[in-house]
């Protein structure tokens, strides 16, 4: 069961990475087109700035989820590293529970409400004419990835793998 969960997690991480690569490529092309139309054509295409802003938000939110999943996010564990291993494990578990609560309430539930409200109010973007609910969908989507990665990290903290090739966190590497 654990191997299946790890394969699903790896697959989701790969999908998320490719989605980010695509979004970054679109962002670069959009900005280059905006610069080209502004300085070469003489008048910037009115949609390029808005699209760049929305793509940047999506890249930032999904990139944060990827960084969280690969444990590449900022963490200050200097003092935690000084604790006894059993205390480190408790601190790591507490951290996972706090992140799980935050991701569920703010990102997933709050994001779903925000998407729902944006669709209900029929908000649209000024230049592109897109419904804002689609733009806001990045909140619950990134939140779902954060919840899945947090559950995975929580399981790894509770049951450390004997496989040395599995990723680990210095704080959570306690037996």
TrEMBL record:
Pfam families: DctQ. One of its GO terms (biological process) is C4-dicarboxylate transport. One of its GO terms (molecular function) is transmembrane transporter activity. It is found in: Cell inner membrane. One of its GO terms (cellular component) is plasma membrane. It is a multi-pass membrane protein. The keyword Manganese does not apply. Residues 28-159 form the Tripartite ATP-independent periplasmic transporters DctQ component domain. InterPro entries: DctQ (IPR055348), TRAP_DctQ (IPR007387). The keyword Cell inner membrane applies. The chain crosses the membrane at residues 12-36, 51-69, 90-112, 132-151. Keywords: Cell inner membrane, Cell membrane, Membrane, Transmembrane, Transmembrane helix, Transport. Coiled coil: none annotated. PANTHER family: 2,3-DIKETO-L-GULONATE TRAP TRANSPORTER SMALL PERMEASE PROTEIN YIAM, TRAP TRANSPORTER SMALL PERMEASE PROTEIN. Belongs to the TRAP transporter small permease family. This is 2,3-diketo-L-gulonate TRAP transporter small permease protein YiaM. It comes from Novipirellula artificiosorum.
